[in-house]
Q: What sequence folds into this?
């Protein structure tokens, strides 16, 4: 276990404890990781356990304990991966539909994380025991690019790019009906539905709602569906699926949000991914072909 001590200087007093520690550690750990350390009673001020929202005072002595990483209890599995790029810091995966990104609930096998543990031994631990290396995620039935971090420094840098919107993400979505406007911007808050915690929905009242922004461009209109290019400004859970469903154009095959027709899974593909490499500072961009099941729908021209 690593133990660190900090003294609160006058100019840094008055802010939240978790924010103070993020600054004191110079970005070594994310705020969510620090908050978890505080919630787990690994932080004391003047010998007393406090909450993450505690306002630090001038002269406070902050003691931080960083537990040793827990050994992973997941099984590496030889699941085929489409690796578009890999170096000592990161790898870019073109994820196939049907592959869950990380273990959750009773599912501890058959995920991208299990495949990654088999493929490479060096993964960032910031995501936690069940999400090593996972900087961002795609839904199980969404295909396309995601980036995986091999060390904590890379993980923090990439997470910052997604948060600050300097990373580039573009999706192809096939949606039911004819979208009338050639382009549009959807800015509606999203929250988890209280009656079904597995689903998200538009909510203005929920105190835990998060602002979400989705931009879309019509690429082609077919007989009874539309092909969109979708660009994210935020990355909320199910964001594209919820926003398009709310505007009356649910993604084809998305049984959860209102369209069961045309394809066996939601017709959503993370086609383009771009980011600045944390080590070289060079902008890297990856672009993939539309998957066969979605291309079949496009070739047919109708649902």
A:
């Amino acid at each position: 276990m690593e133990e660190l001590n900090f003294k609160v200087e006058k100019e840094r007093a008055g802010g939240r404890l978790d924010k103070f520690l993020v600054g004191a550690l110079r970005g070594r750990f994310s705020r969510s990781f620090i908050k978890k350390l505080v919630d787990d009673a690994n932080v004391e001020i003047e010998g007393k356990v406090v909450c993450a929202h505690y306002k630090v005072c001038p002269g406070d002595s902050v003691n931080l304990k960083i537990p040793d990483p827990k050994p992973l209890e997941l099984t590496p599995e030889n699941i085929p991966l489409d690796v578009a790029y890999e170096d000592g810091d990161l790898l870019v995966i073109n994820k196939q539909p049907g592959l869950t990104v990380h273990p959750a609930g009773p599912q501890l096998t058959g995920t991208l994380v299990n495949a990654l543990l088999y493929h490479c031994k060096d993964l960032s631990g910031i995501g936690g025991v069940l999400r090593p290396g996972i900087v961002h995620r795609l839904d199980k039935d969404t295909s396309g690019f995601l980036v995986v971090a091999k060390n904590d420094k890379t993980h923090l840098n990439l997470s910052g790019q997604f948060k600050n919107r300097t990373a580039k993400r573009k999706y192809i979505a096939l949606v039911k009906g004819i979208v009338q406007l050639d382009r549009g911007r959807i800015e509606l808050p999203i929250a988890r539905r209280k009656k079904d915690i597995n689903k998200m929905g538009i909510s203005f009242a929920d105190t835990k709602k998060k602002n979400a922004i989705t931009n879309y461009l019509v690429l082609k209109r077919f007989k009874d569906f539309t092909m969109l290019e979708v660009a994210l400004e935020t990355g909320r859970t199910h964001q594209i699926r919820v926003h398009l469903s709310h505007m009356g154009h649910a993604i084809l095959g998305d049984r959860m949000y209102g369209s069961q027709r045309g394809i066996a899974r939601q017709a959503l593909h993370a086609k383009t991914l771009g980011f600045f490499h944390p080590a070289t500072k060079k902008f890297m961009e990856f672009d993939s072909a539309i998957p066969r099941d979605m291309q079949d729908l496009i070739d047919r021209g109708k649902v």
